[in-house]
TrEMBL record:
This is HD domain-containing protein. PANTHER family: HD_PDEASE DOMAIN-CONTAINING PROTEIN, SUPERFAMILY HYDROLASE, PUTATIVE (AFU_ORTHOLOGUE AFUA_1G03035)-RELATED. PROSITE patterns: HD. Residues 44-148 form the HD domain.
């Protein structure tokens, strides 16, 4: 499992799949993978595997139940359908309706299933729910960490391109004189959501990792502004 030093740096992280397979098993991961068919590339199985890997590292550092955390991370976006601007309650219900019978069929005890359902139910940023359990806090942190840093930059532009959003508002790219509207302009998503995620982390480990990834976002925006304004 990944180790985190006191500064929150991850060392010798395993491949995305292997950390989860060691605890959950390859066969279950393959079955979960089928639930992600049709998802957009920013919310596909590779996203779930990255979240699982990060969540397991945070769980180890914070003392959370690794099985609940790993299962919740793998299943948090499963069967929810393609990404759109507003996550629907129906999509969330489809995920929960899928998770419980799957875990029962695989023989997980009720206490694990309940913990997974709680974590999955409250993980979404758009719901604005403060999670009550440590495992749910770990999942929220890990999912939001995947939205920032280098991978977060890649995901936001992948999603924006799929939805046909223009890159930025040519009159005010960095939202200095207007409210951010990420339904209209892709770069606005940094200001409406991504730059806010760092302050919303729950665990000490999540906060340390978010600080480092937040620096990546800010450095990118500084470089982007220079290229837009100077053109050289």
């Amino acid at each position: 499992m990944a180790k985190l030093d006191p500064e929150g740096r991850a060392g010798d992280l395993p491949a995305d799949r292997s950390a989860c397979e060691d605890l959950i098993g390859a066969e279950l991961i393959e079955e979960i993978g089928a639930l992600y068919e049709g998802k957009d590339p920013a919310h596909d199985l590779t996203h779930a595997l990255r979240v699982c890997r990060t969540a397991m590292a945070i769980a180890e550092a914070e003392g959370a139940d690794p099985t609940i955390v790993a299962l919740a991370a793998l299943l948090h976006d499963a069967a929810s359908g393609p990404k759109n601007r507003d996550r629907s309650e129906e999509a969330d219900e489809r995920v929960l309706e899928t998770v419980e019978p799957l875990l029962k069929r695989w023989g997980y005890p009720d206490v694990v299933i309940e913990g997974v359902l709680r974590a999955v139910e409250v993980h979404s940023y758009s719901k604005g729910i403060d999670p009550a359990t440590l495992e749910a806090r770990v999942l929220q942190d890990a999912d939001r960490l995947d939205a920032i840093g280098a991978i977060g930059i890649a995901r936001v532009f992948m999603t924006g391109g799929a939805l046909g959003r223009p890159l930025y508002n040519p009159d005010d790219p960095f939202c200095r004189g207007r409210e951010a509207d990420d339904g209209e302009w892709n770069l606005d998503h940094f200001f409406s959501k991504l730059l806010k995620l760092e302050e919303g982390m729950h665990t000490p480990t999540g906060k340390r990792l978010a600080t480092r990834r937040g620096e990546v976002l800010r450095r990118y925006l500084t470089d982007l502004e220079e290229e837009i304004s100077k053109g050289i």
